[in-house]
Design goal:
Blueprint (H helix, E strand, L loop, with lengths): L4 E5 L6 E7 L9 H12 L7 H4 L5 E4 L1 E2 L2 E2 L4 E6 L30 H8 L5 H7 L4 H15 L5 E9 L2 E2 L4 H7 L6 H11 L8 H16 L6 E8 L15 H10 L4 E6 L17 E2 L5 E2 L7 E2 L2 E2 L4 E7 L10 E3 L6 E3 L10 H23 L5 H9 L1
Antiparallel strand pairs: 1-2, 2-6, 3-6, 4-5, 7-8, 7-9, 9-15, 10-15, 11-12, 13-14, 16-17
Helix pairs in contact: 1-5, 1-10, 5-10, 9-10
Length: 388
């Protein structure tokens, strides 16, 4: 019995992305099509770049699963990069050469800070690992962990609230501010409509405006960011802890979401809106009834670092992608002279894709918390602990 841990490796244009999941209990049923479906969701949507036309992501499980069931041993996964064939010479592990090393950093990217930290003179060494391409592997891992969550009836979905200046008129936060939807057909219905949208929003009028923002940015050689929500339903009471700062569930979630490339802010429940309201309009009344219930879910399912049994709601704000087709001023590190920033093939907007990555990260955090609270070497053992 141990903590659920994940590790990823690989470069954007290297041969493959590789991941390991350690601590997954034995006996969890894994379906390949579930993983593939999440990877397709990540690749789709308005604003994606040319790379998505090359890659057709599929995660291959190499170990830790036999006849569709986890063994309790580490699970290893690999996603091959089809574009590797075009980068063999420039990204060789032992042999090769790069005829055009990157020496001009992009403002807003890890290029300069990464080069200074690791002593690189060719920024390609930073670009390849800092790239959001790595999130494909996180989505695959998150899908595997979600299949552990299925045993506890935990369901996760996402919804885009805003892209640039276009904002949806409906959101999960507004819904939770009015009520505590619990098992929530309203939540599922909103997410279902978002799943059918190119920008992952349930609001069809906002969808048109969001797509216009993306098109306008593309025409201007610019990029746009936005905001997305991720929700988890049927989360058991008691995940996380108020007793230890590192075990606080909200702290773990915030750290996981801040680890998504481009995310600059994370909120739970009402988030920043709490600052402008009195306590009577922030906290959720506790009402009598079977198991007690709440009149609203402004806390977003977490109080004092502990899951309170209500749906967990996370919001994340993503900045515009730093690679601009009309680049900002920068400096060529090889000469010290002013130069326009490096231009790399890139998306115009990746907010819908980031929402799918957010689903994966929430699944991973909740999977880790479940293993901690109901720990066991097998799913059967975990379920016995859960039921007791």
């Amino acid at each position: 019995m141990g903590q659920l841990k994940i590790l990823t490796a690989g470069e954007s244009h290297g041969r493959a992305l590789v991941g390991i999941i350690e601590g997954m209990p034995a006996g969890v049923r894994i379906a390949q099509e579930r993983i593939d479906a999440q990877l397709r969701k990540r690749q789709g949507g308005a604003g994606r770049g040319g790379r998505m036309k090359i890659e057709h992501d599929r995660a291959q499980i190499l170990s830790g699963v036999r006849f569709g069931l986890t063994l309790g041993s580490p699970i290893s996964l690999v996603i091959e990069n089809r574009d590797w064939e075009n980068w063999r010479e420039r990204m060789g592990v032992f042999d090769g050469a790069d005829p055009s090393p990157v020496t001009v950093p992009r403002p807003g990217h890890a290029d300069l800070a990464g080069a200074l930290k690791y002593g690189h003179t060719d920024l390609r060494n930073v670009i390849e690992r800092a790239s959001a391409r790595e999130t494909a592997l996180r989505v695959a891992i998150g899908s595997v962990v979600q299949q552990l969550l299925d045993a506890f009836s935990i369901w996760i979905g996402s919804h885009v609230v805003r892209i640039h200046t276009a904002t949806a008129s409906e959101s999960l936060r507004l819904l939770f501010d009015r009520s505590a939807p619990g098992g929530s057909s309203e939540v599922r219905e909103m997410v279902s409509r978002a799943d059918a949208s190119e920008v992952r929003t349930s609001d069809r009028e906002a969808e048109k405006a969001m797509k216009c923002c993306i098109s306008d940015a593309a025409a201007a050689g610019d990029t746009v960011g936005g905001m997305f929500e991720v929700v988890a339903l049927s989360v058991p009471v008691g995940l996380g802890s108020y007793a230890d700062l590192e075990r606080r569930l909200d702290a773990q979630i915030a750290g996981a979401f801040m680890g998504i490339p481009g995310v600059k802010a994370v909120e739970i429940g009402l988030g920043v809106e709490c600052a402008g309201r009195p306590g009577s309009e922030v906290h959720d009344p506790i009402l009598p009834g079977e198991g007690l219930r709440r009149g609203s879910n402004r806390a977003g399912g977490i109080e004092g670092g502990v899951g309170n049994g209500e749906p967990i709601l996370v919001r994340a704000t993503m900045k515009p992608i730093p690679t601009l087709q009309r680049p900002l001023p920068s400096v060529d590190l090889s000469t010290g002279e002013a130069a326009p920033a490096h231009v790399e093939r890139s998306d115009v907007c990746a907010v819908p894709a980031a929402a799918v990555v957010g689903e994966a990260m929430l699944a991973i955090v909740l999977g880790r918390a479940l293993c901690e609270k109901y720990g066991g070497d097998s799913l059967d053992e975990m379920m016995k602990n859960f039921r007791s």
